[in-house]
Specification:
This protein is α/β, with parallel strands linked by helices and 293 residues long. It has 10 helices and 11 strands. The chain folds into 2 domains: 24-113, Leucine Dehydrogenase, chain A, domain 1 (Rossmann fold, 3-Layer(aba) Sandwich), CATH 3.40.50.10860; 139-272, NAD(P)-binding Rossmann-like Domain (Rossmann fold, 3-Layer(aba) Sandwich). Helix 2 crosses helix 10 (271-288) and helix 6 crosses helix 10. Bound molecules: NADP nicotinamide-adenine-dinucleotide phosphate (NAP).
Length: 293
């Protein structure tokens, strides 16, 4: 079994981005600037936004966070989106999800200028990705593809099974894995909570991408020998073995599935770090105007 070391790959990419930023800002040019809108006090969202800000600093980007109480009104949030759409010093921005129930998430996503939509959630970017045009591809699927590319996993002609059909992971990654690209060119089966005979399907996978949000759901009996496994899930569980009293696990039972896999991405240190660098890559593209030029 070979580990797909997302952390190491992400560090490499950050070094490349930092070099590019130095080159592009030679003279007096301002660096790329990523902004984030954060609503409420969800600890996971706060951690995620803070780690994005840290990553920006590491590569020489500017970053800013627009933080609001959870009772912000929808019109007020829309005004902030509009403000960032029009700010020439902001190259890209994200609206950290989930938003409180009284705010229509789709309305906010669709208000973001697609040219600044570095999260790749706007229908224009999703549509462009689907038909193979240059697009901002959302961070997690993009990170998975980059991981497969850099780990030199040959995907063409393989059977890829994707567990999960969410708009942020399962659906887009299934589209990318079926695209006429390398990585890609796979025959894709998408499974979800209404799929019957799941184990029979996962056992046929050459490449198994798991994004279902169920702790250690995939076990050794569900995979064949030699499978490539990408584990997207993240769960924080109690542990008596760590100082913090917690540890992170994925959607896959790592210990037993890694015995059969040819390659596997761990949790932590797999897809998570790749997601953050993907956002940096998208922001750099926005700064260089590479997608909509
Ligand atoms: P989500 O929106 O909850 O979607 C879960 C998907 O899994 C749904 O399509 C659901 O089917 C399907 N599903 C649920 N139970 C299933 C079962 N028993 N068998 C087959 N399919 C099943 O989750 P998500 O946002 O895609 O995230 C998935 C996991 O990835 C979570 O643990 C999340 O924390 C993690 N994540 C990690 C990163 C990262 O950067 N590493 C980024 C994003 C998400 P239905 O559509 O039928 O409900």
């Amino acid at each position: 079994m070979k580990l797909i070391d997302g952390k190491k790959i992400a560090e490499q990419i950050k070094t490349e981005i930092a070099l590019k930023v130095k080159e592009l800002t030679a003279g007096d040019k301002r660096p790329p600037h990523l902004a984030a809108i954060l609503v409420g006090n969800d600890p996971a969202s706060e951690t995620y936004v803070a780690s994005k800000a840290r990553a920006c600093k590491e590569v020489g980007f500017d970053s800013s966070t627009y933080k609001f109480e959870s009772d912000i009104s929808e019109p007020e949030l829309l005004r902030t989106v509009e403000f960032l759409n029009n700010d020439p010093e902001i190259d890209g921005f994200i609206v950290q999800l989930p938003l409180p129930d009284h705010i229509d998430e789709q309305k906010i996503i669709q208000a973001v200028n697609p040219h600044k939509d570095v999260d790749g959630f706007h229908p224009e970017n999703v549509g462009r990705m689907t038909i193979g045009l240059p697009a901002y591809i959302s961070a997690t699927p993009n990170g998975i593809m980059e991981m497969l590319r850099r780990a030199k996993i040959n995907t063409t002609g393989k059977h890829c099974v994707v567990l999960g059909r969410s708009n942020i992971v399962g659906r887009p990654v299934s589209i990318l894995m079926s695209a006429a690209t390398e990585p890609g060119n796979t025959t894709v089966t998408v499974c979800h909570s209404k799929t019957s005979g799941l184990k029979e399907i996962t056992k046929q996978a050459d490449i198994l991408i798991v994004a279902i949000g169920k702790q250690e759901f995939v076990n050794a009996e569900m995979v064949k020998d030699g499978v490539v496994v990408i584990d997207v899930g993240i769960h924080r569980i109690e542990s008596s073995r760590t100082k913090s009293g917690f540890k992170l696990v994925g959607d896959v039972k790592f210990d037993e599935v890694s015995e059969k896999a040819s390659y596997i991405s761990p949790v932590p240190g797999g897809v998570g770090p790749m997601t953050i660098v993907s956002l940096l890559q998208n922001t750099l593209k926005a700064y260089q105007n590479l997608i909509y030029s």
